[in-house]
Amino acid sequence: MAIDVDVWSPLKWVTVAIVLALSMSASRAQEAHETATPPQSSGWIVTLGGFGDLEPKFEGARHHAIWYHPIIDYRAAGSREWLSLPFDGFDFPLIETRSFRADPVVTGRWERDVSLERGFRHVGSINLSAETGVFVEWWPIEQLRTRAEVRDAVLGARCIVADLSTDWVWRPNKQWTVTAGPRLSIADSAFMRSYYSVDDEQSVTSGLPTYSAPPGVRSYGAGSMVKYKWSDSFATMAFVECQRLANSAAESPLIDDRGSPNQLTVGGGMSYSFVVGK
């Protein structure tokens, strides 16, 4: 039975509370066994930049377009530089040890502009949305990162999405970082209904059969990134993300008849880091 968004909303806040409670407990446990390295200097290291990519015009689209995404990050000078992948949300450090952290997170999702894809013209646009929530990240060993983000759309589309990823991280030297690993995304009924369902009115205007996409696994896939630090300040990177829409989405007539379940994104970018408040 589909879970309505009215049920998911309180469930989301319960999940957030549990995640934060577990995060704080894990943080205290980690700190009891680890000695934190004190910052060696004062101030903040701010990282600014951006990357461009070739990605689907919107989720489920058959054709691609070029998009631009900003890179914004900051950390205390002398603190650990955590791995940041292209589609990680922007986070605010609150709970942090040498191998674990949990913070609020913010990200955005491109709109579905039906004028960009002819086959979707009669099923309605979806506005650009902003999503907020929490994430937890754990490094069981130095070369392995696991991360989970749970986010609720607060602007634009109404939905709750959970993204999970695991990455093997290889650093042959101080300049190179290479990552690769699987991806999994889960969405509630509001998201699946907005992006993949076809109601009676849309069926009449589009000629597609009606379809109700159930909540659950939205997509699965894998991603990889290669990053090179030319100096302590300047870095460049290239990446690829492959996503396959799960059956609940792929079986939608929107995707089966007019879109594509295979979603490929490739891109590259650069960033510059500098110290402020020293």
Walk me through what this model shows:
The structure is a single chain. This protein has 278 residues and is α+β, with helices and mostly antiparallel strands. The protein has 5 helices and 12 strands. Strands 1, 2, 3, 4, 5, 6, 7, 8, 9, 10, 11 and 12 form a 12-stranded antiparallel β-sheet that branches. It is elongated, with a radius of gyration of 20 Å. The termini are far apart. Mean pLDDT is 84; it is low at 1-11 and 18-39.
How would you concisely characterize the structure shown here?
The chain has 278 residues and is of the alpha+beta class.
Question: What portion of the residues fall into strands of 2 or more residues?
Answer: over 45%
How many strand elements?
12
Cα distance spanning the termini: 56 Å
Q: What is the CATH topology? A: Porin
Largest sheet: 12 strands, antiparallel
Query: What's the number of domains?
Result: 1
